Amino acid sequence: MNTEHLKTIEQRLLWLSHWMIHHANHVRPKVDGIKIGGHQASSASMVSIMTALYFSALRPEDRVAVKPHASPVFHAIQYLMGNQTREKMENFRGLGGVQSYPSRTKDIDDVDFSTGSVGLGVAITSFASLVQDYITAKKWAGDRPLGRMVALVGDAELDEGNVYEALQEGWKNDLRNCWWIIDYNRQSLDGIVREGLFDRVEKIFDAFGWEVVRVKYGALQRAAFKEPSGDRLRQWIDDCSNQDYSALTFMGGAVWRQRLMDDLGDQGEVTALIDGRSDDELAALMENLGGNCTATMAEAFDAIDHDRPTCFLAYTIKGWGTPIAGHKDNHGGLMNKAQMAEWQHHMGVPEGAEWEPFATVDDIDALKAFLDAVPFFAKGARRYADDKIDVPAIELQSDRDLSTQMAFGKVLDDLSKGESQLAERIVTTSPDVTGTTNLGPWVNRRKLFAREAMADAFIEHRIPSTAKWEFTPSGQHIELGIAEMNLFLLLGAAGLSHSIFGERLIPIGTVYDPFVCRGLDALNYACYQDARFMIVGTPSGVTLAPEGGAHQSIGTPLIGMSQDGLAAFEPAFADELAVIMEWAFDYLQRDGEGDPDERTWLRDETGGSVYLRLSTNPIEQPVKRADDAFRQGAIDGAYWLRPPGPNCEVVIAYQGVVAPEAIKAAGQLAGNRRDVGVLAVTSADRLNAGWTAAQRARSRGNHAAVSHIERLMSDLPAHCKLITVIDGHPATLAWLGGVAGHQTVSLGVEHFGQTGTIGDLYSHFGIAAASIIEKVNGLTVGRTIS
């Protein structure tokens, strides 16, 4: 370990990160007249930790989730190593520039995990470690060294509940190869962290089997403690409150001296310890906490010789090394121009050399040689890829009533019986609802994953049970506790496995549909970093009649429409689901670029994740359908179940499980209204996305751009009335009237549900066939239908 080079790098990173923020806020022209921001103080408190981590401890197989507010330091590291451009650094927080927080999809440098929503980047490292173990245990896995999954954690992130949910899940799954490095600067956005908090947090880590390493004192402090009566200084530091330590840091060396002399002076040897240092030297000593000492952090990292999960509690000064160090307002504060000019002189950076990576380095060749030998960067960019998996034909027919949830389970059960590579790479997971979301047959055949085999006592004692749950390293289901944030974090980690570990997985998660909302932040986080997975929300809607309002989802179709990176479907029939799942398994693996498909104006070549909203209500299935219009329509978002005639007066457009109500209403209308049409919508999300994309294309001069829904509705006469119906929020389909200007009445659920029969609730919420007929009677001319 070359501590001299590490110190040089630390100072370079401190300058470059802060200059990038200063340039964005005080040098670059302000277009909007508002503060750009950038978290100088939060970056400063992490700079020594990150220097030691990246330039001493990490290896190429390791992966890091960077504290969001330390993003400038991360990009400064990449800039120093030639992986980031000056142009993008100069455009920090601007369009096309370095992002506010590390982003796998928006930044050009080597981001392992996107971060931004605090707590999520922390927790995903534990699930990435679990995924690494899962892959390593499989016979098809390549031979590569196990890496450490590292999170750089802001101490305020420990207020997030999902962190503790992840700790518990990690313990249950025998977590290993995971480091959480906590920047314990004891300051957050609104003030100082409560005294003694981490004593309690530390006990939580210990309870879940983590090793906790306190890194409290830097090399200067440890040396001072060895001086005569140095133990008194150490005790004073231990007893000093967070508020006082921060305030004294901000006020500087002279005030440190006065306070220490007041508290410790006239005690002989302690007085000599204080008096033997200048004000600047005394300030440097008191601010030399363990997390602000590169050598100390490097030693702490190097001392770990096991794979147990480890938490480093690194004491730091927020704003360390800058004029705003310690001030309680420094979280959102920035150095002003005068402060920056003075600090630039202090840092020894000549005017005009602000962006030079090696501006203050005495021996540039020696430092470059050191950087060339840093293990973490030795193999270049660490993004992997894996071949696409062939998707076998998926067909599902039934001559009996069937729910889409049952059909989903049947598709997976059929795959589990085969030997396809797709089946081999599927990994399922669920937050304690495996059996009730029809994953049971898949799990019985493919077993549950654990690093060490565990027998099922019910099987051993020959106790009858439909759940034959055997834990084994070859298992393909990861059972989670009932915490939906953990579900989506695991799906996010598994959905990045092809890029992070070079082995493609096809992750499938199931959850009760209303509880998609409980994990929504983690779902958005997974999609933001372009993880690929299938999430199945089931059961859904008031159709889950006996469960009542707490378990009946209303707004999830709108979540599916609005969530970027997620294609949402709600099929009604088993054959639709089979077509969609076959398409989805391929879609999850796509990673192309190019123009939208001019048939639909959807960017399907880029791929993404998939959301299936399903139901437990068995409904009558249609006769076998194999025509291309049906298959393609189910994928594109809609098809005519009953094509309208030339003089169509009414179209009923439905999505999902209310199909029988729409079909029944159309049958009653036949002979009373002319040329009635029934539009089967499988994905309002994809229909709407294609429609808005086609409109944008036309506004830019491509007048031939026509979306799938526009094509479907192009022959409807202007007087045609449109009735839409869904077991969900009516806004999901209400926009269909705007496609071609048809008067529209949208039926759906807008208020909390309650218990009852399906018929009772459909009537209560106005989504039954009788409700559709009622709207037709009121909107159209003709005989009243009863």
Tell me about this structure.
The structure is a single chain. This protein is α/β, with parallel strands linked by helices and 786 residues long. Helix content is 41%, strand content 11%. It contains 33 helices and 20 strands. A 6-stranded parallel sheet has the order 11-8-12-13-15-14, with helices on both faces. α6 links the parallel β2 and β3 (178-184). The longest helix is centred in the N-terminal third of the chain and has 25 residues, at 3-27. The protein is elongated. The N and C termini lie far apart (86 Å).
Write the layout of secondary structure elements.
Blueprint: H1 3-27, H2 40-57, E1 63-65, H3 71-80, H4 86-90, H5 120-136, E2 149-154, H6 161-172, E3 178-184, E4 187-188, E5 191-192, H7 197-207, E6 211-215, H8 219-225, H9 230-239, H10 242-251, H11 253-264, H12 269-275, H13 279-286, H14 294-302, E7 310-315, H15 337-347, H16 364-372, H17 404-417, H18 421-425, E8 426-431, H19 440-446, E9 448-449, H20 457-460, E10 471-472, E11 477-480, H21 484-494, H22 497-500, E12 506-511, H23 520-528, E13 534-537, H24 556-562, E14 566-569, H25 574-587, E15 609-613, H26 628-636, E16 638-642, E17 650-655, H27 659-669, E18 677-681, H28 684-699, H29 708-712, E19 721-726, H30 731-734, H31 737-740, E20 744-747, H32 758-765, H33 769-779
Parallel strand pairs: 1-2, 2-3, 3-7, 6-7, 8-11, 8-12, 9-10, 12-13, 13-15, 14-15, 17-18, 17-19, 19-20
Antiparallel strand pairs: 4-5, 16-18
Helix pairs in contact: 1-2, 1-3, 1-15, 2-3, 2-14, 5-6, 5-21, 11-12, 11-13, 17-19, 21-23, 24-28, 25-26, 27-33
